[in-house]
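Summary for the steering committee. One of the milestones for this cycle was to obtain a three-dimensional model of the protein with zinc ion bound, which we needed before selecting residues for the alanine scan. The sequence and ligand used are listed below.
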Amino acid sequence: MAPVPSGRVHNLINIAAYSVLAAGALIATRQELVVLSPAQALQFTLAFAAGTFLLSPDLDLAEGRVDSKRHWGVLGVLWVPYGMLFSHRGWSHTWLVGPLTRLLYVALIAALVWGALLYLVPGMTLPQWPQTFTLQALWPPLLGYYLSQWLHLMADGVRPDHGARRARRR
Ligand SMILES: [Zn+2]
């Protein structure tokens, strides 16, 4: 098997791809080829950065030492169960399900923290969805997140049908 890129190499690839994309988006907006609001650009950027530095597929190695776990600081320990649950370059490295497992894992932890807070601080209220929330508002952050993940998988040499092939082998 070809050598797997290190966390640092993945970061550099993603930063380079982002720079090209951002330059392209800037030119396209100037030429009025696309309409992109500053808020959408910011959401895309934040999600792309989170996907690159905090939610990398290599968190499946979080039971050991890995770059993306280190970025979480002391909170990195929260990823140890994820690392034990997912084998390296298994489902965590599939194109659709893989990125979703990490989003759900974060949601699960957030729900646990929230539940504990509600228990400890009675009378606390849940944050409300913004009134104007629509599903369409989700595409810039989702695209930013998934793109950061796909760049990682491409650099790893993982094909888009990785998950299907794994399932078929069973
Ligand atoms: Zn990887």
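Key point for the committee: The chain has seven helices and no strands.
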